[in-house]
Each structure stands twice: as structure tokens, then as C-alpha cells.
Amino acid sequence: MINAFSLSSTIKHGVLILGALIVLVPFYMMVSYSFKSPGEIERNTGGFFGSQELMVDERCVKLQDPNKDEVIALRSRFPGLGDDGVRKAFMAEVERDCSMIPVVFNYSKAFSQAPLLRYLINGVIVTVSIFLIQIIVALPAAFALSKLRFLGRETVFNIVILGLLIPVHAIALPLYIMLAKVGLVNTYAALIVPWTISVFGIFLMRQFFMTVPDDLIDAARMDGMSEYAIVWRVMLPTAIPALLAFAIFSVVAHWNDYFWPRIVITGDRSLFTPPLGLREFKGDADGSFYGPMMATATIIVTPLIVAFLIAQKRFIEGITLTGMK
Amino acid sequence: MKKTLISAAVLAVASLSSAFAGSHSDKVIVEFGYPYPHLFDVTYEAMMPAFKKKHPNIEIKFRATYESYEDGTNTILREATSGNLPDVTMQGLNRQAILVEKGIAKSLEPYIAKEANFEKDGYHQAMLNLSKFDGNVHGLPFSISLPVGYYNMDILKEGGINSLPTNWDEVIKACKVMKSNGIKNPIFWGWNITGNWFMQAMLWSQDKPIVNGNTINLDSKEATLALETMNRIFRECEMQNLSWKEALASFAAGEIGMLFWSTSALGTVERTKGDFALKTGPFPGIPGVNNGKPIGLPAGGNAAMMTSTSDDPKVREAAWAWLKFITSGEGAAEVAKTTGYMPPNKAANEIILADFYKANPNKQTAVDQLPLLRDWLAYPGENGLAVTQVIFDGMEKLVTGEATNVAELQKEISEEASDLMPR
Amino acid sequence: MTKALNHQRQTRSAWIMLSPALILMMVILILPIMIAFGLSFTNYGLGVKSVDFVGLENYERIFTRSTFKKMFTATVLYVIIVVPFSVGLGLGAALLIQSVQRGREFYKTIYFLPVMASLLAMAIVWEFMLHPTIGVLNETLQGGCDSTVIHGLLTGSWYGADPLTSWYGDKCANGFPLWLGDRDYALWTICFIGIWQSFGFNMVLYLAGLTSVPKDLYHAAEMDGASSAWERFRLITWPMLGPTTVFVVTITVIRSFQVFDTVEAIFPDSGGPGKTAYVMMFAIYEKGIKQNLLGTGAAITVIFLMFVIAVTLIQRWFIDRKTHYA
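The joint structure predicted for all components is written out below.
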């Protein structure tokens, strides 16, 4: 009988919880910063939620800063004060109107400074397109490498493994120039096409396919199915769990990709993917806006967490069957 | 088959979206790129109403912003190769040379020649010199920053220091006082700011440019004095090797007494600082040189350059109109009001903003130093950017104590840098 | 269907099915590498007006400059540290999670979180946490100094040793390290962040591998007298996980060689204090993109690839011989 309070079980949970705490600390800080005012972040004060004292949205204030003619127009609202006094009084009003608590400031800026919603949608479009094309390319290739007998099979497989070694940063500029020659920079195609070949996916699916019994395939051949049909009508249905595994790796990697979109999208930021929402707030030597940055980061990781929670059950099953027994 | 269909679909969507971008009207469209959105978004937004009133037929299309001055240049270089340059781009002052060398940035002389009275609009020689290459103006400076000292007056007062130090000896003395009062990290000196800016500051303080044509002046006696002064500051103040992000955070938390950095961070510092009195003071000079006052200081910031490849003269005229607007009068005023930078335009500073600086004394410091404006120099040749790294690495060795012999270090970096210069 | 015809059909179908993948690989992976290979013999940079052949000059420079030695050291050290910990912790976490009854989903999700987070944001958070004076880490360590219990424990003074001779005691007295600003600690800090960021990925792969170990094997072993957890692991679990380990180690090694994002986010200007974290991918980025010296960047790429191919070949040959396939 399982004793829920056995010593070994307690120790195990203890270790796991300790590990979980260490792993979570950066997230705790990220979410905490998304609640805090710039000063609290920089000086590391304020507990988890920050003191939520009203802070002034400087951008809102600066946009309403009156110039000389506007001050003249305001004279009637502040009788008895000189121009200097009128401006001061008006700005005091503006500051009051432009005040808000840090958490509201951070999250509203995250969505308003850059079109974050648009970026999130782009993230979905780009990751889904990439994944779909990856399957279309990888599945037949994996089938061929695992179930078909032909001369050169081992060589091709070795080339696939070699492909894993090539890092994107090394080929980024030649790829950019190639895309530029066909006029595809600043397009969705530029974001998607370089990732359509996933050697990782071919490798993973090949492992999986090797565990599917040959009889299943031979039976399909007896029924007169073409090899191509076998891939889509016999292998794909059995491969759903493995595909989910591949999907998680692929979607997470491309959702968070910061380097490539920044190289290839320069004209119009409406094509940016979610992590680029962070760059709106970078200021380098002049100081960055960490609050909205962390708010953005929290927002863009949330869909991934949700997707992971939904997929994880079938996902573990999936890799089980990939022949890594 | 499926793959071809999907690829075709993706390409179709892509071309449709780019088609919509180029809609027609009789407005002239000027494509514009600028860096540091969280600093400058508000500046451009603030000046748009005035621009629209003055030039109703010109539409400014804002491109994806640059992350930094470096990203700005890299993006322009990539766009030059792929053939989709913007019409106007904002580039860091020390990054202009690279684009001029490669013929990407166009000379503005033809447009200036057509102007009735350019000087009257506030474009004085010192300002235009910042963007003059081979005697031709290639850019109009938009926002200027200078090195400055930020002082935590509470910490200084505790040490009995009531007036701001004016030269580096006084700075070192102040360090020692603070240290004896228990301040562990009295100073941060911004050696690691981009583009060797502070190294150039030490050289310009002695009126020596760091590079002259194809010769780099690292073996000069001015360079020796610069390196020795830096080394004294690092050693005698026991300055910690903080990254500048860490230093800004430490200063905000009230741990650092004196911070030497760019004026452009004033906004952030004021916004994030804890409860202490902040004062900015002029950049100290080298004792023994010019009565301990700097002779010149390198200007940081960015300038507007024309990179238009359009054949349509209307587009070029429109680009010039935008260039002029943002660097003169109303445009410049917004720079001062919304950022920590200064507009270099004389008319703006003396007329429009006169009261503004009275109300913002901490910003006045930089304006007072305007007469000291010198170029933020870029190193020539294809290895120019590698030279920046050589000097950076050299200074780092002083900070970490890896190099203790200043003369040896000077020889090392001077040789390595000269090696990289064009023959 | 005759055997010959069948074989013909398979061969034809195989090549048709492989063609999209092969074509894409050629265009997207191989062609750029060929271009890079060609560029490595030139002095090309974006926007230059004339390109010259410089022969092996770029390669010569790589092997004679001291910064490039640091490049190899940093990369190799990173791989040596990160791979065992990332794989080991992944395995350990998977084993622990598999052996508890409750809370599995909870632990799985938390340990996978670092993989899902945006690296740029995480780098900024780590920088704040590692701040020498106001960061969480040093604040906690400093707090321990003030507590006599913890101080005594960690310095050994509770049994009479001089506290200043221990690392902790010395730091309590003189100030904790700058972590990211210190030449001695910067690379280890980057390794730590790298392990933190990647072990969840390996945990997930191992969890899958574990669920496929047949339970009857454990029963059989128990009957044969192997009853302790260590025996079970050594005799059954570890051998059965062989193929999983091959996959995990291969992928982790390759990714470790390709480490870049963390270093660029934290040390964008220098590649670490004294270039101690100047890993090869960062060098490629610094030369090729930051300094616009595409020729040199390409040369480093070629060297990098040759290096990694050699390591992979050795690894495949070595490990494949020892793997137990079911």
C-alpha cells in the first residue's frame, strides 16, 4: 500500500520543490517587475507587487506640453497667473490626468507602444505555417529514410545529421542576400521559408517511424496503395503523438525567435513576431523601460504555457513511441 | 503538390500585403527610420502636428525602428544590399562616416545651396561640422549629448564636499573622502560606453582627435596622459568593473556617489532614483591642461541623413523638407522638451527654449558645454569597427587590473589599432 | 509484385519523397555555407565597393590572435560544463517526477518553463538578480553572513576553522563577486544560466524514454534479488535509456556548441569581461555582423563547422558502439 507520507516520498517532493523554487526565481522576478514602477525595478525594492504608488506617464505628459500659442489660449482658464504660472498650473493638471498605477502603466504600454496584439497574431501565423510546411517536408523524408530500401539511404541520413550542426547565425547574412535577390525581404515568406526544412524534425520522425511494424505497411501495399498515400493515410494517423512533440519544440523555438526576424524585417514592423515587442522599450545607454518590457515578456510566454499544458499529456506519449526504447 | 500550393499561398499573402503598403494618392511618401523608439517615439509624435500643417502633402512612413545606433547602421547596410533603403535615416554621429564612405548617404550640399538663408535657421558651423566629410555636409545633427557628471549630493555632503569637482584630481580626492565614509563604490566612470566615447573625451579634453585621416593617435603624449589619468581614477578610487546597466542601477539605489556618463540618461536617472538630491555638473578636465578644463568634448547623439534611392525629384524634395523640419525650429524644440538630448540648432536653443532651460537646470549643464562640441570620430577603412573593439578591450584591461603598466598597454593597443588602419 | 519491381518502386518513391527536403536543405543550409566558405577567402563586407581575394589571410589571423584562443577555450569549457549538468539534471528530474505519485504535471510544467521564456527578458532578469549589491543573489548571500548559524556552517568556523580561509568567509569580509563583471566567474555564470535554460528540455525527453521501459523487467529483477533503487537504475533503467541518452547528448552537445543568445544578450559589447565568454558563435556575430567583416566571420564559421563535425563524428562512433538497442 502506498503510504502518502512515507519518508522517501517526502524527501523526493522536498527535492523537487527546492528545484522548482530555484527554477522559478527568474519568473517570479519577471512577473514582479511587470507590476513595478521604474524606480522600484532599478533599485530592487517594493516586494512582489510593488507599492503601487501613482506614477506619471511621461509620454502622455510630454505630448500635452503647451507651446507659446497654446499657453496664450489657456490664459482664460487660469486667471491671475503670469504665463509661467499658467503653464505650471496646466502641467500640474496634465500630470494628475496622466498618472496611473505602475501595473496599469506597464501593461497598457505593452499593448499600445508596439502593436503587440498584431505581433501575437503574427506569431501564430508564422509558427503554424512553419510547422505545417515542416510536416509536409519532413514526413515523407522520414518515411523514406526509415521504411524504404534504396541505395544511398545511409548517406542521405548522414547529410541530415550534418544539417543539425549548421547554426542559423552563421548563415543568416547569405540567406538574407539570397532572399533579397528574389525580392522576398520584409514579407511573411522571409520569416517562414528558411525554417521549412527541419532536420531535427526529420530525425525525430524517422526514429518514430522505425518502430511502426512493417506488416502494417506491407498490408497497405498489398491493398494497392502508393508509397505516397501510405505516408499520409497510414503513417500520419499513428504519428499524431510524435507530431505533437515536434509541434511543441517547433512552436516554442519559432515563437521566441528574436534574431532572424530582426535581420529580415526592416521596413515595416507590422510583420514582427512577439519577442520583438520587447525592443520597443530598449534604450541601452540611455536607460530602458523594464516595466513594460517585463509585461510584454509575461504576455508572450502565456500562450506557450497554455499550449504546453494542453498538449503535454499526449506529448509525452508521443515520444514514448519514437523508438527511443 | 500540397507543398507547392501552400508555398504559393504564402507568397500570395506576402505579395498582397506588400501591395497594400504602396497605396496611391497625391501625397508624397517619405520612408523614415530612427533608433531607440522608447526615447524618440514621443519626440516625433509631438512634432507631427506642426509638420502636417506646414507640409500637408508629405506623408512620413515610419519604418521598423532600430534597437541602437549600431543596429541602425547594420540595418542600412543590409538594406543597401537588398535594395530597399529608406529615404531618411537617423544615424549615430560616429556612424555617419561608414555610410558616407560607402556612398550610401548622399551629400546635402545641393539642397543647402538652394536654401535662402540656412544660417538664419540656426544651422551654425560647429553644428554642421559634426556631419561634414571631405568638406561636404552629409547629415544634419538632430540630438546631441555630451559627457557629464551626475552627483549624489547627499553622499557628497556627508563627506563634507560642498562643491562639485572640476578636474580629475578633485574627483579622486572626493573618492577617497567617500571611501573613508564607508561608501564602497564611490564612482563609476563610463569607459564602456559605445564607440570609445569617453576615450575620445579624454583626448578631446586636450584638443587631440583620436584619429586623423588614416593615422590613429594612440601613441601620442596626449594618449599617454589620457590613459594614465584613467588608470589613476580606476586604481585610486578602486572602481568596480560594473556593466553600465549595473552602474545606473547602483546609482539609482544611492550606492554610487559620482557617475560620469552621457546627459542622455538624465531622464532615466531622474525617473528611477531613490530619495536623494541629484545634481549634474560639467565634465571635469585634466589637471594641468587648460587650467583643468576640457578644451573639447565629443558629441554623442544622432543626425539625419538622406539615403534615398528614388529617382523622383518630388520624393527627394520631400525628404529634404523632413530633414530640415526635424533639425530646425519646432522639431529641435521637441527634442529638448521630450528627451535628455539637446538640439544643436542655435535658433532653437536661444529663442524657443530660453525659458525651458531656466526651468530645467540639470539640462542646462549640457547646453553650457555646447561650445566644446567636437566630432565623435569613426575609424576609417573596412576594419574601422574592429578598432573600436581593440580600444575597448584595452581600457577593460585597465579597469580589471589585468594591465598594470600603462606604457606597455598603450604600445599594445596603438600597434594593434594601427595595424587595422587602411594603408 | 516481384522483388525487383518492388525495389524499383521503393527507390523511385524514396527519391521523390526526399526531394523537397533535399532541395530545401541545399538551398537553405548548404548553399549559404558554400557562400560563406567562398567569402572566407575574401575581405567582403556589406556595402564595400570592391571585393578582393585575400587567400588564407583571414584564417592566419584567426590562429595567431590571442582573442581567438579565448574563443576556443570559452566554447569548449562551456560545452564541458553544460552538457553533463544539463543531461544529468534532466535525467534526475525525470526520475524523481516519475517516482512520485502526485503533482507530476505541476513539476513538469515548472521545469519546462525556462525553455519557453523569451531569452531576452530572462537575460535582463538574470542581470538584475546578479547585480553585485542590490541583486537577489548577493543580497541573500550577504544575509547569510549576518546570521551566525549560516555563517558558521558555510565557513567551517563552527568546528574551529578560520572563516577567512573559506570562500564564503572571505567573501563575507571583502564583498561578494561581481559575477558577470568578474573574469573568474563570468563564464561559470553563463554556464549556470545555460543549464537552467536547457535541462527542462532534456527532462521532457527522458520522461518519454522512461515511460517506455517495460515494467516486467523491474519485476523480474526484483525476483532475482536486485531490490535497491540504485541496483534497479544501474541494471535496468540506465541501459534501457541508452538510445534516449544518445539522442539527448547529441542534441545537447550540438546546441551547446551553438550557444549565442545568452552571451549576446548579457555581453553585447565584449563577449564577457576579458573575453572570457567569447564563444565561437559570438565571435562569428561580432566579426561578421557587428564589425562588418564578413570574410573573417565566414572563416570562423568554417573552422567552427569543421570542429563540430569532428566532435560529432567521434561522438557517434564512440557512443554508438556502446549503446544497447532493444
